Amino acid sequence: MVTMKQIAELCGVSRGTVDRALNGRGRVNAETAENIRKMAKQLGYEPNPAGKALAARKHRPVIGIILSSEGNAFFDRVIEGIKAAAEEYKIYGLQVEIHTMKGYLPEDQLALIESIQADVNALILNPINDKRIVQKIDELVDAGVFVVNLNNDVDGSKRHCYVGSDYYNGGITACALLEAMIGTSAKIGLVLGSRQVLGHKQRLEGFYHRMKRVKDFEVIDVIEHEDDEIFAYERTKEFLRLHPETTAICALAAGVYGIGRAVMQLPEEKRPMVIAFDSVPTTVEMMKFGVVRATLYQHPYRQGHLAVDLAFAYLVNGRLPEKQEYIMKNEIRLLENL
């Protein structure tokens, strides 16, 4: 195993200089520090785990996590992934603090960020696509806070990276899947949480883009329900009352259980085909009832775990993300392969 002493000898400096250059402790000439880092990388140097743990515990790094997750079962598995990663890194003194909110009001999210920003070294944020949130992200990054946008992104921020699915591709895939299952003629209701969420907007755009290839697909209306099951139920029920000609519903976000309950109130022969996203327990239940025919899976556990992995790598090892985006594949799931 390569040691600091060996790097020091090769670079012609003291071991203390190597320590300061690799760990950001004290002043080192910029050119010397760069040479040391290049040599360490070339030799495959890895700090001693016990030493890293001791150093991290002294600094007690804190990751603040803000999720618009209340009432949205998708995030249960995201949070499981976050907690599993937090447990793995507990030896390093890493603290992970999860804060949740309901809905997509930028004012609420901004207030929550401001309430914790002085106490965190990293922020994992499920952001609302609003210029005030973008400005706050940029402010945090400029202040030295490591920022990961989780499960959703925003337009044009300085965040360090995004972890989540490709929403535009998800919309394309949903449309192609519907065509494969129903044929080339359908009168469709599209149901989503909010256009305030960049991913929901992108998924809608992807669906419309793919729909250009299908001659007789018609979108009757787009329903927004703030990822609230009650709103999803009420608004879908009213939509179906006004549009009994509907043959398909694409649930492009959460609220699938509410959508399914509204569909189930129709006689079986008049129920539209429903495809959805994610495989939360209530969606699986709707699949067992035959209401939801297929769903697109986004790997929520991996999203949560990876976001913490990246924040840990930066806070403890000083390692920046290798990519701007870490994309989870959209996978088609039927009841038979859940």
From TrEMBL:
Gene3D superfamilies: 3.40.50.2300, lambda repressor-like DNA-binding domains (1.10.260.40)
Keyword Transmembrane (UniProt): no
Keywords attached to this entry: DNA-binding, Transcription, Transcription regulation
Signal peptide residue numbers: none
Domain HTH lacI-type: 2-56
Classification via InterPro entries: HTH_LacI, Lambda_DNA-bd_dom_sf, Peripla_BP_I, SBP_2_dom
One of the record's GO molecular function terms: DNA-binding transcription factor activity
UniProt superkingdom: Bacteria
Protein name as catalogued: Substrate-binding domain-containing protein
Organism of provenance: Selenomonas ruminis
